[in-house]
# Entry
Amino acid sequence: MTSLLTRFISEARGLLEQASADLLALEKAPDDQEVLNSLFRCMHTLKGSSGVVEGLDPLTRAVHAGEDLLDDCRGGKLSFSANLADPLFDTVDLVGEWLDALGDTGALPDDAGRVGAALANTLRGLRADSPEAAAADTPAPVASADHCDWLRLVDHGVRRDMYIALSAPDAALIAFEYVPDPQCFFVGDDPLLTARTAPDLVWRGVEPAKPWDDDLAAFDPFACNLRMRGLGTASLDAYDRHFAYVINDVRLLPVARAELVTLDGPVAGAKVFEPFSEDARGLVKAADWDGLRAAVATMRSVAGGTDGFEGQALDWLDLVLNSGPIDPALVNRLVMAIATGRDEGGETGPAPMHPSTDTPAGPPGEPRPAPALDPTTAAAADILMAQLEALAMPMPPDQRLAQLPSRKETLVRVLTALDNMEAVEKLTAIVHQARREEDAVLLAEVARDMLMDLGVLEPDAETASVAPANVPSGGAPTARKPAEAPSTADRRGRSTKPKLREIKVDQERIDSLMDLAGELVVAKNALPFLARRADVEFGVRDLAREIKGQHQTLNRIVEDLQGAVMQVRMVPVSAVFGAFPRLVRDYARKLDKKIRLVVEGEDTEADKNVIEDLSDPLIHLIRNSIDHGLEPADERVAAGKSEEGTIELRAYQEEDRVVIEVNDDGRGIDADKLKAKAIEKGVITAEAAADLSETDALNLIFAPGFSTAEKVSDLSGRGVGMDVVRVALERAGGTIKVSSTLGQGTRVRLSLPLAMAISRVMMTTLADQPFGIPMDYVVETVRIRRSDIHHIKDREATVLRGRVVPLRRLRSLLGIETVIDVWDSGGVLEEAVLVVNDGSGHTGLVVDDFEENVEVILKPMEGIMARFGHYSGTALLGDGRVLLVLNLREILKWP
Amino acid sequence: MALDLKKTVANLSGTVTVQEAEPLLEWLQATPKGKLNLADCEHLHAAVLQVILRTGATIQKEPTDPDLTTWLKSAGAL
# Structure
């Protein structure tokens, strides 16, 4: 998995959490503009960052639709309400699921295109300017796309064949309807080719999407006005993939067996069917399929021919009874069709996925008059039968639970039609209970009770009529939506146990963990003091030894702990490097140079803060290389180099430091030119320049206000030069070195501590108070004889190994009362001198005495102390004393 | 040549691309009694199909490609 994707996943999870929280808050306070803005930003950011990652188009589209919707809310075109919250929650859940899939497989699920497009359509339908929203107050139909309403167009023969084919256990039939965007020709699409090449088609058709304009002159051949449809036997996923690029314009629907059965033609209504239909209804009720088969055969021989409504119904009955598992609901539907002369088509169709929206008009089971003895009761009985069968079907509990609302809806309608309001209440209560217990048995009982009330079902017959119903009613809910996303309730239920392979932790928490580990170090460091006291003051040597032993153990554990905490904060430099290929590309284009960026060692890790501090200086250095270092192509060719310049970015670890090199094979830095420029700018005097070695001359680029670019471009040369880079690095405890060979290139080497948390300091004492000096500055400690100190005007200096070293007395620098503290070493007076290098040369600091080196957790000065720039921070010592750590760079600037 | 416009017959052969839509439309408008010969046609771009459907042009010879024929038939062009 690419690091980009990994980062996206973790970022997106954070955004989703925020979005969920915002949505919940908005549900409580829909007018809270601030929360709305935050939610909008979440979606917006999600859209933006998903757009960068390859292969996430469905995600981007879905989130984009959510963003648009929220923008309408922000702009006041739409007020936030519950019917907006649900699809938005769905979006959040869906994206969450996709992130899981991305984490597992590195790709979105196969059906992501279709599921995402459906959701995006729903969201778009809710927008302020959408036709649906404008047309009606009712919530936009969510389930508009789950019924294939054009199957009657398909040739009868094809439908019969497919019905037989679908009797096989894992056969599938997919219907597609493709209405291309009118502008699609302009992006090079050939929708007909796309439709023709869909796999395994058994039927296809094309027609104008809208009636043609009467005026032939107004006809635009390049505005696509076609609707293509097809039936195919490949898997839903296969069609998903086939139509992936136009999935927004395609409706894919799995077709259930029962849907293939349609009846048309003139109704004969002949008397001849009456005895048959009466018989047949009895046989259906008794599930006597053999008997029915015989009756159908007889009837077909009597009625003859297949023309007309009843004839077709008989043919279908024959087919349904003789191929594959028998679908009782479908049989019932056909028998009823013959009896009543009308086909109650989708009666056994699947329950709508979203019961909250308007239940589709026809199905399932709007009570309607039927030409039976007691029309309402008869219709109600049929419906109840179908429901009972459906409820008796074996299926996974979660699926059953998902269907409950629609089943309930149907029953409620039946009861309302029967004027049984008491039962409606009872039913509602039961459904609540059933929802909790994931059990539809109760609902089935209600249906059965009602059937008995109606006298349709005999108490002893109930098992007989329910038992064979293990044949799916209409093949429906399972077969019809094999790839449908789990219902909302289901999805929300599942997301309570998300996979947490990584945790995002507030940096503050890690910092406090770090502090605690640090304090543990300090506390541990108190043990040696204690041991010494036990030995020296109390004279118990054994105890002292034991304490030391314990200290060793504790020491090991604490060090491991500290290492572990540091490890948590480590991030790879790729976090910073990742942005550079783009940066280089953009600049190269802007300056019309050809540049190749080589990156090495992206896996090198360093503390998060260090990496963050690296970012700006590196950008600056790379810009410099592009702008000043690399020559234009023609100049390069003239110099015998390849046309393409190379910038090399290399990171590696060197002991406890991370080193980053920025190398280019450009023109290099001309030391003489640099000196001349420095003199011209008054950075250095001509005499001093003459004395500079080549290396020192190169360091001139770090002088403040130094820029050699002959022309100022918008990339670099804005007056903030390398001095800014140097200062930034030094603040982070790093160093920077430049080397260059004229005509061959420049190398800049940055070195930073791996982690800044622990600093090594040299302890010194002044007037019995400890002061810390960062070890990075310390060159050596020496004792110098008084007699070797020379006075030059009011300054002191000494000579160390043939080199003049100026001396500063730290006591006077810090304003501590100066006493002439002397060391008597066999009658020779000596001073303790700490030779330090602050980057501008060696200086000797005269102190009272040296103490040991310690590792401390340096804490910056806080409150009013923060103003004292001459301290870089404080640290707590093992014996409880506070150590002030000096900022030598500041102190040595003092006169 | 995917589109060969004669005096009364337009021969469409091979794969007829989107570029052919406009010339064909103009020819059909100028030649109301013009007939189409699709015998050697393997594929029509959707835009060309639209032209045929909209103008209701008479197809003299249907494609030998059975799949294309099915599509045309479904649209009532044959």
About this structure: The longest helix of chain B spans residues 21-30. The interface with chain A takes residues 18, 21-22, 25, 29, 43-51, 53-55, 67-68, 70-71, 74-76 of chain B (CB under 8 Å).
